[in-house]
Amino acid sequence: MMMITQSRRFDAVLRWRDVVVLLLVLFLAGLLLTGRADAASFQPDVFGSKTLHSTSLKMFPKWRGVMDRFRKEEGACDNCNRKSWEALRNSLQGADLATQVKKINSAMNKHPYIIDPINWNKPDYWATPFQFLRKNGDCEDYAISKFMALKALGVSSDIMRIVVLNDLNLGLAHAILVVDVGDTPMVLDNQIKSVVPASSIHHYQPVYAVNDRGWWLFRARS
Fold first, then answer.
1. For residues 33 and 25, is the Cβ–Cβ distance under 8 A?
2. What is the pTM assigned to this prediction?
3. What is the tens place of the pLDDT at every residue in 157-210?
4. 77: how many CB neighbours lie within 10 A of its CB?
5. What does the alpha-carbon distance between residue 197 and residue 178 come to, in Å, rounded to a whole number?
6. Residue 114 backbone phi and psi in degrees, to 5
7. Exposure string (b/e) for 140-161, b if CB count within 10 Å is 16 or more?
8. What is the mean pLDDT of residues 201-221?
9. What is the DSSP secondary structure assignment for residue 115, as one 8-state letter?
10. CATH number (domain holding residue 150)
């Protein structure tokens, strides 16, 4: 009975996430149609889709919240696992980007996957990297921690974005990190052991992406 109850709870969480993603898409599409986005033209991006870009993050309170909390934790935090964070960062200082991306992806993927209702007693919670190192997390927590770890190594935000998407094979919402290594968008995914080119994945349908400088709304592939 416990397994059945947890399974039903997990299914409910996934359905709720799908609803949230759908509502966000409709909201962002409204910005596009009303001309409130910064850019007026689509540009090619990952998974064969195109994007509309804006530098405003007002409509992403959870993302802004996790960035604010992480900045405060970097300044002072009693429960933060600084030793493991700094050890990982120090071990990769000066390495080439491909190595940094591979090692960060591997290190974060070693953490167990735990859904938010069990981990945080909330339907959806975006954890800081220190929280993730301490309590593990779900898909967006992996992506956030990878983004922040690479940023701490000096990787430019201009070549990184957290992508929220639909996994067409599983019929579920999912989140990953995409990093441009040279001219190739590479996917850092908790569901895939290795870092792989975005062009090798055909069952992901991107919805939106964010980094600390803006967001991208994806248009469906033609």
1. no
2. 0.83
3. 999 999 999 999 999 999 999 999 999 999 999 999 999 999 999 999 999 999
4. 15
5. 9
6. -135, 130
7. bbbbbbbbbbbebbebeeebbb
8. 89
9. -
10. 3.10.620.30
Residue-number span of the structural domain to which 44 is assigned: 2-219
Whole-angstrom CA distances from 42 to 15, 52, 165, 208 are 30, 5, 18, 13
With tokens 């999912």, the residue in question is 174
The identity of residue 75, as a single letter, is G
Phi, psi values for residue 45, rounded to 5°: -150, -160
User: Given the structure tokens 């934790």, which residue do they identify?
Assistant: 73
| Locus of tokens 């995914």 | 189
Strands 172-181 and 214-219: unpaired
Describe the crossing of helices 139-152 and 82-92 by its angle, rounded to 10 degrees: 60
d(CA 179, CA 163): 10
CB neighbour class for 48 (10 Å; exposed up to 12, middle 13-18, buried from 19): middle
Domain count of the fold of the chain: 1
Q: What are the C-alpha distances in Å from 8 to residues 4, 11, 14, 42, 213?
A: 6, 5, 10, 40, 37
